[in-house]
Specification:
By secondary structure, the protein is an alpha+beta fold. It contains 6 helices and 10 strands; from the N terminus they run αββαββαββββββααα. Strands 3, 4, 5, 6, 7, 8, 9 and 10 form an 8-stranded antiparallel sheet that branches.
């Protein structure tokens, strides 16, 4: 992949948002306005993104610069075909510790949309991902389908080193070695008696009432999106109804 080709391409306009990287969802093409985006993001930009993913039992680390995500396959490489510029955004590490039973323990790599923080691509990183810092400002890995090769090309050298260092700290931590196991285990099925006990417990549990939920505390409003932002934010444009249905586009 040549650096000259990298700068002369624009992100893939369609099928840029994937469910588990196997089933594409089409989206409206948007032009990437790179001239108005800073190479290195400030602390406020990072706070907006990390606050979108931070929760109880999770750790979040957002890169301090934007990056391009390129993908290819072994067949494309064998045919000497170019890498595909697949997505552009802010890379984020999301580590779920497994404290919340609804969020299993896993390490995810997310590409967040600059300006909104919404995830526009994500995948699970495990022992088969083969994450490497292949060259300066580049990080290579395999997607969870085990067929697609990917590379992140960062816009800043220092930020790329910090982002990869965070991954290495997780990878070398004995507390998270189960996240990178390459042994495929067959989970034992629960017996019917065990299932009936769990079902009985659920029936006996009382639903939480609104009066049991406290008012918001230590709340800080740090993100604000308007209808007019749909021009520059793909994810927002997908969520909103057609703009002609709005009487005032400045809201």
């Amino acid at each position: 992949m040549e650096d000259n080709d990298i700068h002369n391409r624009s992100p893939l306009p369609a099928s840029a948002i994937y469910d588990n990287n196997t089933r594409p969802r089409s989206q409206t093409p948007h032009k990437l306005v790179s001239s108005s985006i800073r190479t290195v993001l400030n602390a406020n930009d990072i706070l907006k993104v990390e606050s979108s993913y931070r929760s109880i039992g999770s750790q979040v680390f957002a890169c301090h610069c934007l990056c391009n995500l390129y993908i290819t396959t072994a067949d494309r490489l064998a045919k000497l075909e170019d890498w595909i510029l697949f997505q552009h955004g802010l890379p984020v590490w999301l580590l779920n510790l497994g404290t919340d039973p609804k969020r299993p323990s896993r390490l995810s790599l997310i590409i967040a949309e600059y300006g909104s923080g919404f995830p526009i691509w994500q995948d699970t990183i495990n022992g088969f991902s083969d994450v490497k810092q292949s060259r300066v400002q580049h990080m290579t890995f395999r997607l969870s389908d085990q067929k697609t090769l990917a590379v992140l090309r960062f816009n800043d050298l220092s930020a790329s080193k910090e982002f990869y260092s965070y991954y290495k700290s997780i990878r070398c931590d004995n507390r998270y070695e189960h996240l990178f196991s390459t042994i495929i285990s067959n989970k034992q099925q629960r017996s019917s008696s065990c299932g009936s006990i769990l079902l009985k417990r659920r029936k006996n549990q009382k639903p939480i009432s609104k009066s049991s939920i406290s008012n918001p505390c230590q709340f800080q409003h740090i993100t604000c999106l308007k209808v007019k932002d749909r021009v520059r934010l793909i994810s927002l444009d997908q969520c909103l109804i057609p703009c002609q249905n709005y009487s005032n586009e400045n809201i």
